[in-house]
Amino acid sequence: MFADKITESALSTAAPDSSSVVIADVRGSTAAIQRGEQRLVNMVGAACIAAVRNNFPAGVIPYVFGGDGATFLVPDEHLAKLKDVLEAVQTMARVQFKLSVRVGEVRVSELRAQNTDVFVRTQDCGAEEKIYFLQGDGVSLADKLIKERDSHFDEMSSFLNFSKVNVAGLSCRLLPFNALRGSIYSFIIEPRLPLSESRGLFNHLFSVLAQDGHLEEFRPLQRENARRSWLPKTWRIEAGLKMTGNSWRERFSKFWESIKENILTTFVFRFDVQNAMTGRPSSYMQDMLVQSDWLKFNGSLYLIVDLKLAEYQRFVAELEHQETQGSLFFGVQRAESALVVCHLDSSSEKKHFHFVDGSEGGLTMAALQLKAKKR
Questions:
Q1: Range(s) of the domain holding residue 309
Q2: Long-range contacts made by residues 48-52, C-beta under 8 angstroms, separation at least 24?
Q3: pTM of the complete model
Q4: Which strands, in side-by-side order, build the sheet including 130-135?
Q5: Do the bridges between strand 295-307 and strand 130-135 make them parallel or antiparallel, or are there none, so unpaired?
Q6: Residue 303 vs residues 6, 17, 38, 187, 341: alpha-carbon distances, Å
Q7: Contact 134, 118 (CB under 8 A)
Q8: Which of 127, 174, 213, 267 is deepest in the core (most CB within 10 A)?
Q9: Number of domains the chain is built from
Q10: What is the DSSP letter of 219?
Q11: CA nearest neighbour of 118 among 49, 52, 22
């Protein structure tokens, strides 16, 4: 399991100077979540990654899902195309969902000139998927600089770009994964130490967290809490992702298509029907447990875990101790369930990845708490 090797420093490599950290995130995500639109915010954030996965060969552009957006490490030769791909997602989000997506980039060489750095790791998870970890304080600085500059996307840009969006395979048809052990906690833990020392810090935190067991026990996605309804509420979002305009004919067509796909998918998974897209659904669901990002590095450590109250209290007590020592900042959000957005690559039944967040604001609310502490 990838959790066993999460802090092995030998697996990290320095990002090339000839690359950029690109961040895409939903502006006003906190307000949208407070309006009850977290599923939509998660879907738009994951759409940025789905568009990149659909437009670039695997492994070319590392990415990390952050709940209300995504972070990418982009080589110079792919930067222009990536910005075009994300511009199409921006337009789709604005036209279909009235959400504004901020996109900005900072060169790695600029981050190093300010005494920060970025490291990247790639680790296999499942037969054909990989998970990426972005480490180092350069990621946090890039996020800060991009939000300070906040180069707004041209609200009057051509709708022609809208037709170029490709987020095929993106869906969130699974119901929330209710906690099995206690509650779902979304943590963001930002180290205040050099990378060489922060690895030791994270090893220590993982040992505290897994004191009575194994990290994999805290995974919020399990076969036992995977549930489907015949028509999940997210069918309207899926329909919007596929539209290239706003005509009533297209809207009716895409709505009807989404309803049929959702009902058919539930039938296929309920009765474990072998099919060309996912193969045997029972195997797909088993792969999902491994091919999901409940534990990730996006500069900071992001954890979405299912903990008993005593486990949570012990872990938070250690985090608070480390915070008073000046080793880290952290934010946490408690919820009763976890949410997942799925992306299936039709080229193989084994190529599917699942982006995890806690419900009730999850990572977005944890980030808000962390930023308040830093201020």
A1: 11-226+281-374
A2: 48/24, 48/86, 48/89, 48/101, 49/343, 49/355, 50/167, 50/168, 50/169, 50/170, 50/343, 51/85, 51/86, 51/88, 51/89, 51/165, 51/166, 51/167, 52/82, 52/85, 52/86
A3: 0.94
A4: 13-14, 119-124, 130-135, 295-307, 183-191, 328-335
A5: parallel
A6: 12, 29, 18, 5, 16
A7: yes
A8: 174
A9: 1
A10: -
A11: 22
Task: Provide the pLDDT for residue 127.
Answer: 87
Residue identified by tokens 């101790």 is 321
Paired with 300 in beta bridges are 298
Structure tokens at 274: 């072998």
DSSP readout, 292-339? B-SEEEEEEEEEEEEE-HHHHHHHHHHHHHHHHTTSEEEEEEEESEEE
The structure tokens 């028509």 sit at 231
Q: Which of 292, 268, 304, 269 is nearest to 352 (CA)?
A: 292
Residue 215 lies in a domain: yes
Percent residues over pLDDT 90 in the chain: 82
pLDDT exceeds cutoff 60 at 33:
yes
Neighbours of 361 (CB within 10 A): 24
Contact 345, 351 (CB under 8 A): yes
Query: Which are the contacts of 145, defined by CB distance < 8 A and separation ≥ 6?
Result: 104, 106
Q: What is the pLDDT of residues 215-254, one digit of tens each?
A: 899 999 999 999 999 999 999 999 999 887 778 888 899 9
Cβ partners under 8 Å of residue 320, min gap 6: none
Q: Two tokens at 257?
A: 């298509």
Binned at pLDDT 50, 70 and 90, residue 288 comes out as very high
Task: Please tell me the distance from the alpha carbon of residue 276 to that of residue 330, in angstroms, as a whole number.
Answer: 44
Which of helix, strand or coil describes residue 166? Answer: coil
**Residue 146 within a domain:** yes
Q: Is residue 255 part of a domain?
A: no
